[in-house]
Amino acid sequence: MQQWKYGYTIRTGERHLRTGAACQDSVFALEDEKCIVMALCDGIGSLSRSGRAAQLAAAAACHILRKCADINFYHHAEVPNGMMKDLLESVDRFVTGKFREEGADHSQGDCTLAFVFVSKLFDFGFAGSLGDSAVCLIRKSGNTCLTESNANLESTASLHIREPWRFAKSETFCLGDDFWGAILTSDGMDGEIYTKNSSQVFRRAQVYFNAAQTDDMKQTLAELAETAVRNSGGELDDDISIAVLSRAEDDVLFPQDVTWLCACGARNRLENSYCFRCGRDFLTLYSSVSFAKYGGKTHFFRYANQHSTLERRFLDGIINQNK
Asked: What is d(CA 144, CA 308) in angstroms, rounded to the nearest whole number?
């Protein structure tokens, strides 16, 4: 059985570092024998207690979804607005109640929400987003981003607006062999991992997703975020949150990647000189191939990837020739 791995990092944005403002992002995760659930919230910066709202909302979303793990709520979650409406109303009531206990008004804090729920009992998942935080669902067959798409909103959709479920995105999915996992991220990574008003997941996202294969996922994610900020030329200056849930056993390859096939059967990115599984040298394995004859190495392997039977037959021929 594949093991689930998850972790996250939160980084205060450059703008907040310059002004001394607090980071208002929050991530929460729960796991038991029935399910795994992660939630990420990004506080609305113009409100003084949005960081607290994000903390409360992320934890509440996880606890509420975990309570659903005893039943197969797959069909309920499929009903348009059904599960999202119940969830968002429940989370908002919880945050409002906690604010009241703390002597504050809910108008002092609000946040977005992104989450992913995986059932261990019924083999399905449920993910959703409200506002411009994002859920990137990572699959062998292709990736999907759930994030804000209503460009007519005057501001980002959040928990405490009127009927927030009307602006939310959600998706139910069977786990199967196709589903690798998910990335949750705040709008601080817009343009790096995903883009607002789009379902597109950038190829760069695989670097963050594959952090799950390292010895210390949280440290790797933190280093990747720092590198992204340094290389962005000041464009990534907001608070950054990245959470990864993965059950991939090796580094994943996105469908748009051009790969070379090793004799051991493993696929490797074209830029990798050695097979990640067996260590075989690409240059040695394909030494007899004149790539210029086929329009260059990239063109050769892109065509080969699209014709897997021919690709395997060609490789077998090379192996026999080298014996």
From this structure: 25
pLDDT at 132: 92
Instruction: Determine the pLDDT at residue 1.
Output: 46
Whether the CB-CB separation of 147 and 133 falls below 8 Å is answered with yes
Confidence of residue 179 (pLDDT cuts 50, 70, 90): very high
d(Cα 60, Cα 58) in Å, to the nearest integer? 6
Contact 198, 145 (CB under 8 A): yes
Distance in angstroms (rounded) separating the CA atoms of residues 306 and 314: 13
Gap between the Cα atoms of 180 and 100, Å rounded: 40
For residue 108, pLDDT beyond 90: yes
Exposure on the CB side of residue 1, measured as CA atoms within 13 A: 6
Which residue from 182, 184, 194 is spatially nearest to 138, judged by alpha carbons? Answer: 182
Query: Who wins on pLDDT, 25 or 78?
Result: 25
Token representation of residue 167: 């602006």
Report which of 159, 147, 160, 138 is spatially closest to residue 254, judged by C-alpha positions: 138
Ranges of H-type helices in the chain: 14-19, 50-67, 74-78, 82-101, 205-209, 217-231, 282-285, 297-305, 308-322
Cα(23)–Cα(11) distance, integer angstroms: 8
pLDDT score of 154: 55
pLDDT at 94 (0 to 100): 97
